[in-house]
Specification:
8-stranded mixed sheet; alpha/beta; binds 1,4-dihydronicotinamide adenine dinucleotide; oxidoreductase; ClpP/crotonase-like_dom_sf
Amino acid sequence: MSDFVQHVPQGDVHVLRLNNPPVNTLRTEIRAGLLAGVNAAKAQGAKAVVLIGAGRMFCAGAEMTEFGKPRQPPSLTEVFDAIEGFPGIVVAAIHGSALGGGLELALACHARVAVAGAQVGLPEVKRGFVPGAGGTQRLPRMIGPEAAAKIIVSGDPIKATEAHKLGVIDAIIEGDLEAGAVAWAKTNIGKTFTLARNRTDKISGQDPAAYDAVVAGLLKRTRGQESPKGCAEAVRASFTMPFEQGLQKERDLFSTLVAGEQSKALRHIFFGEREVLRIPGMPEDAKSLPVERLVVIGGGTMGGGIAMSAANNGVPVTIVEMSEEALQKGLARCHANWERTVSSGRLSQAEYEKRKALLTGSTDFEGTVAKADLVIEAVFENMEVKKQVFARLDKAARPGVVLASNTSTLSIDEIASATSRPELVVGMHFFSPANVMRLLENVRGAKSSWTTIATATEFGKRIGKLPVLVGNCDGFVGNRMTGKRTPQVEKLLLEGCLPQDIDKVMEGYGMAMGPLATGDLAGLDIGAAVRKARGTVAPVADAVVALGRFGQKTGKGWYMYDEKRNRLPDPEVERIILEVAEKMQVRRRKISDEEILDRLLLPMVNEGARILEEGVAYRPIDIDVIFINGFGWPAFRGGPMFWADTQGLKTVRDKLARYAEATNDANLKPTALIEKLAAEGGTFAGMGR
Ligand code: NAI
């Protein structure tokens, strides 16, 4: 017997322990071990088998690194056939998570028990495919097609207690799971359990129209993603086809989707989000400093959001403000935000009270900072102000405490120069709203030590963020790249587009919101102030702002808004655009959707390449992960650098060169890195491999 599945007979009940740390994925050896284990239990006359996971969970699902390689037997189907053909009962005992193939394994068993804290789900849709081992056929037979579609199309896990109510889990076990599951199996030996595949009670009489209506609601928010549609189609087969045919339908959908570009993109991001945490060059022994108390300087938009993230994750946090009034305003904003979550039913009153107690405030700068284990500064974006604050922090904070800045544009090195501990200064660039957005760009200063970087990384993870380490430069990675897109938006408006044409293309691509609608949300006056400070102009945007159209906050910007904040194209904006174009003697023409997309994405790709050349980002995947988690970029497109690879870097180079000339924009001249990769027939993904 392989070490991957341990076979432990306990009288009539045989335990099979999945042992493939850390998450017991169903790699070939596990499948083989399960098949051999079930057959051995049968040969040895066992009356019941309990499947359980060793370590922290039951099973996280298929081994995705085996995808795309020749399949090694046995298949999961063979394993499931053995389970379903077992002459007694096979019981899955679930702790931690049973996800994807892990849940499908459990669904093929005669019964399932779980600890109350476990969760189950079929997240395949999030990797761009459908459950491929019967999940879309067995789950509907257990809980009905509509309930199953909700779980499978969303991919979100549900708690074991909820699964118990739905009928997926037969019993919740208290105390030790293995002992409890073995006892449960013993008392149920000889009882009849109808296998999911043989059940018809939940699917017979399903009205296809009612199912389609539920699915239409579920698919509304999935934009251009293919896998949710595939999931809905597979579940539909559960009540329109016999079991075996349904399985075949599911298998066909799986094979098509898994080979597609979207699934490759989603898996690229799935693995990428793990890879970005492995920081090249970080010594093995670099240790993060313990943080018992966080102090946030400034309780404005960002400071409040950062403090909430800490409290949401159980970290005691104190906000320091300049005046009692500003402090109370800041705290009240956090409380109101939590209260909204309570009213919507997404947060319990008890959890709210807990978070509220963790969040305190003070106007005593020195006294509070002296107690901090980590300080994150989020005061006004002004170098003089920041330097004053850091000089004061340096004196007030205990020696060895890391001082972080949430600056979005200023140099971390210059900020650090105001202290006597530049090695302990780092950027921690959160994104707005900071209590919601997962991205955290940690900015490495020239002198930041590995301990400091490890502390920013670990603390970021602890408060629910995805930290990506970047280098110090204006705008860091994300804002620097989107900054190169903005001039093209202005040019496209002049040359023939209207705001809605541009947003339609970007939203069609899958962006949460197009750039002009985003501008209206953030406030157009902000961009105008930046242009003024930098001495740049954007004739169309400036003309819009000159009319007091600052965006949603003034009721109109690039669009006008109705009372429900629905955006509507505004003839006044069209008039402004036409006027400016005429004044500048730009002949307007019809611009294709392809050109709009290229002219918005290619400048970002080019800047991304420059960022790689400079070493500001370590790897292309860091850039992709930044865009997916901080800029509303659709994960199923894989991020800007992945997108460039799918276009082919030769095409990217040729188009960039063409647009650089046509739009007279030196920024679009292909970078040396793109020239080199295009000449070699290389890709971003292949760099360094
Ligand atoms: P904000 O104006 O909403 O908040 C700043 C707060 O800091 C104010 O409440 C102010 O009273 C307080 N403050 C100023 N000096 C202080 C001092 N010496 N001691 C204590 N409190 C002090 O500004 P916001 O938007 O929160 O931005 C803060 C920082 O975060 C800036 O560096 C900004 O660039 C950065 N940032 C902003 C983002 C955004 O979307 N708003 C996104 C990412 C970073």
